[in-house]
Amino acid sequence: MNKITSRENPLVKQVAALDKDAALRRELGLFVCESPVLLREAAACGAPIDKVFALDPDALNDVTLDGAALYQVNESVMEKLSGLKTPPGVLFTCRMAGKGVFRPGRVLAVEDLADPGNLGTVIRTAEAFSMDTVALVGRCADVYAPKVVRATMGSILRVNLCFMTLEELAQACSDSDLPLYAAALTDKAVSIGDVDLSRAAVLIGNEARGLSQAALDICGKHVIIPITGIQSLNAAVAASVFMYEMAKKS
Question: Max Cα separation, the chain?
Fold first, then answer.
């Protein structure tokens, strides 16, 4: 195991920059995860771990890390590396997935979902309800940004993510004979209880604007969640309700 003791080490500077620099993340194809628990989960599911930084080498004793570069660092270096006020003692970089493969069945798609916390919650909930695919359509928040990664609580390492255009989503659904529903309050919307979601794709829109007109036009049906007392649900909450219904009816 290599030791790094200087905050000015070029590798330390590069990894620290990944926390805030989306362009660098894309250029290197790497993102940052923190905590020994997350490292064990990543190793267990075969995630492509690149480099591991630890305060205490013993923290890595029970983790199989074939092919990963291992570094012991001091507290000063870990503080430089970490984006957290209280670093957990283990930080690692992981290789990004590619564009992803669309797997039909139970598909939750989001269009232009902008809030990192919402996106992370959607991904975490997708694992809980065994979604086959989470499709990211349009200009969503950076899925590999630290806030998103933390909000997924490790699910980003296991959920099948697929990056698509709206047209690609529609074509994939058509090729798979998979109905595509828009979660939208429109004049022709039907209740969530009146559609079969056991095998379907549901498209959730932007927090402020909802779905684009193009998305509304391309979806076969518009579906609403009947609610009282308020006008709308948070995007992540609405997505969770749809995923629950998909899981319940499958």
Answer: 63
35, 161, 166, 178, 199 from 173: Cα distances, Å: 37, 15, 11, 5, 11
Residues 113, 207 contacting (CB under 8 angstroms): yes
Residue 218: CA count within 13 A, CB half-sphere: 20
Which of 61, 95, 129 terminates a domain? The answer is 95
Condensed to tens digits (0 to 9), the pLDDT of residues 48-93 reads 999 999 999 998 988 989 889 999 999 999 999 998 999 999 999 9
In the chain, the percentage of residues whose pLDDT exceeds 70 is 99
Same domain, 217 and 168: yes
Please state the length of the chain: 250
SS3 annotation, 114-128: CCHHHHHHHHHHHHH
Number of domains composing the chain: 2
Element (H, E) at 33: strand 30-34
Residue given tokens 């690149």 in the structure block:
50
Q: Which residues contact residue 114 at a Cβ distance below 8 angstroms, ignoring those fewer than 6 apart?
A: 139, 140, 141, 206, 207, 208
Q: Taking a C-beta distance cutoff of 8 angstroms, is the pair 143, 156 a contact?
A: yes
Partner residues linked to 110 by β-bridges: 136, 204
Q: What is the CATH number of the domain that holds 120?
A: 3.40.1280.10
